[in-house]
Inverse folding.
């Protein structure tokens, strides 16, 4: 079985090399008439979707990021005249992306092709119409970003083997690091959609029950072990009807795009409450996401072979096509009074064990229906080395060692005033496909 798996992985790698040699695998056009700096997250190869407003126009509108600009799709909705979108131009007049997400795979591809055409250097429709351009383009610096969708439901998975192993070792020892089901199915839990917030929103230090001394009764107070979780998440597209699972072969048609995520955690509250039913108050007080949704088609040039899964998953979870992505991820921390932020984690999405297709398929295999705008998260993304650990729980190894921030600053867990920023990007030849920032600052707990 191992030999067959190695042969298959070799063939997949060869296929990726061949595909990447063809320009059309990337996109039809290599540049735009809009100037884009080489290290901008928002290259012509990206074209992520978001929801924004401006001071002179507080209405929430759908836009696409290109360089330091936002293209307001509500202004140019009449230019989407293809077979999929010609009858649905109104989706770009909505205050969220839900309606567009719900149109499905064909409409997403058509929209991207049309945007590439409209932004190409030899296309005059936008380039040469000064009046239209002045109304259609907005400086990102003058925009306020909002949640990209109305999130009906939020599910958090636990799909990094390195992270699950590290946490298991801390609490159960090496011999029982992974629970018996972990290698058999994508473990997850249902989170709280109401507390998903957009980047830049402060996080209030939560309060709850803790039991720091197992020989004494629990106490109530502000968490002393406030933590980060480096994650990514994807938005669901059309979804499925109740009782009708999404097969793994069709899962990609329901994955609209990805965002960065910081799923803040109160470890001491979580440790006391999570048995027997799992995370609750230790997790539901705040989950931050980046505002720009990077479409999956922009990430395809950076696809990687899937992790070798042993034991082989049950048939409904099997898929051989690669659906893991080489996305460089960084976490930086800037304490109150620090002049500069310190990078405390360098990781990569390619370390994930379970793929997004497997997560979505497993989520719906019992007939659970998912809907446009639902958010499914990866779980903490950790790699094999200490520098790639995606939580302070791991970086400080449950508080047993300090995280050095330089200039006399160190942490085990977060302090009030700390600002955490997650960034991520794929690196192409002379361009990036990036996600912007996922940022939040810790406010003190409310006084009792």
């Amino acid at each position: 079985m191992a030999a067959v798996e190695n042969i298959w992985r070799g063939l997949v790698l060869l296929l990726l090399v061949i595909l990447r040699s063809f320009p059309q695998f990337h996109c039809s056009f290599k540049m735009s008439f809009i100037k884009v700096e080489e290290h901008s997250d928002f290259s012509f190869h990206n074209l992520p979707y978001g929801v924004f407003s401006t001071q002179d126009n507080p209405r929430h509108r759908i836009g696409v990021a290109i360089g330091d600009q936002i293209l307001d799709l509500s202004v140019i909705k009449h230019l989407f005249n293809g077979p999929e979108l010609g009858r649905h131009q109104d989706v770009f007049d909505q205050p969220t992306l839900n309606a567009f997400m719900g149109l499905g795979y064909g409409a997403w591809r058509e929209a991207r092709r049309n945007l590439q055409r409209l932004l190409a250097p030899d296309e005059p429709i936008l380039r040469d119409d000064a009046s239209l351009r002045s109304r259609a383009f907005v400086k990102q610096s003058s925009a306020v970003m909002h949640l990209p969708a109305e999130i009906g439901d939020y599910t958090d998975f636990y799909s990094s083997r390195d992270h699950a192993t590290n946490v298991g070792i801390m609490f159960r020892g090496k011999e029982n690091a992974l629970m018996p089901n972990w290698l058999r199915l994508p473990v997850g839990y249902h989170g709280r959609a109401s507390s998903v917030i957009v980047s830049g929103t402060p996080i209030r230090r939560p309060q709850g029950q803790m039991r720091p001394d197992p020989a004494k009764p629990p106490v109530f107070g502000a968490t002393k072990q406030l933590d980060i979780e480096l994650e990514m998440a994807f938005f669901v597209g059309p979804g499925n009807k109740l009782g009708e699972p999404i097969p793994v072969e069709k899962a990609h048609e329901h994955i609209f795009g990805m965002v960065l995520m910081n799923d803040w955690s109160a470890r001491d509250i979580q440790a006391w409450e999570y048995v027997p039913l799992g995370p609750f108050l230790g997790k539901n007080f705040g989950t931050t996401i980046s505002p720009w949704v990077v479409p999956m088609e922009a990430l395809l040039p950076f696809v990687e072979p899937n992790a070798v899964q042993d034991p082989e998953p049950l048939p409904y979870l099997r898929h051989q096509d690669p659906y893991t992505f080489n996305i460089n991820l960084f976490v930086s921390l800037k304490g109150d009074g620090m002049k500069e932020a310190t990078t405390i984690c360098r990781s990569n999405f390619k370390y994930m064990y379970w793929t997004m297709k497997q997560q979505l398929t497993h989520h719906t295999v019992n007939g659970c229906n998912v809907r446009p705008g639902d958010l499914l998260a990866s779980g903490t993304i950790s790699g094999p080395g200490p520098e790639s650990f995606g939580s302070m729980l791991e970086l400080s190894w449950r508080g047993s060692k300090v995280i050095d921030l330089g200039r006399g600053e160190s942490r085990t867990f977060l302090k009030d005033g700390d600002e955490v920023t997650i960034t991520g990007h794929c690196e192409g030849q002379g361009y990036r496909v990036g996600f912007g920032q996922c940022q939040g600052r810790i406010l003190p707990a409310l006084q009792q």
Remarks:
- The longest strand covers residues 432-443.
- The first helix runs from residue 2 to 20.
- Residues 245 and 364 are 5 Å apart (CA to CA).
